[in-house]
Amino acid sequence: MRDKVILGITLAVVLLLTLGVYGIVDTNRGPQAQKAALETSVNNGRAIYAQYCIQCHGPQGEGCIGPALNRTAWHPVINGVPNPDYDPGTGHDFIVKTVSRGRNSNQPGIQMPAWSTAEGGSLTDQDVEDVTNFILYGDWNTVLENAASATNLDQPVPGYPGFTDPKQLDQVKQLMLTKGCLNCHTMGKAGGNLAAPLSDVGSRRTKSWITNWIKNPKAVAADQRGPNLWLVGPTPSLQTPSASSPPTATPIAFPMNTTYMPTIPMTDAELALLADYLSHAKIATK
Question: Are 126 and 195 contained in the same domain?
Answer without folding.
Answer: no
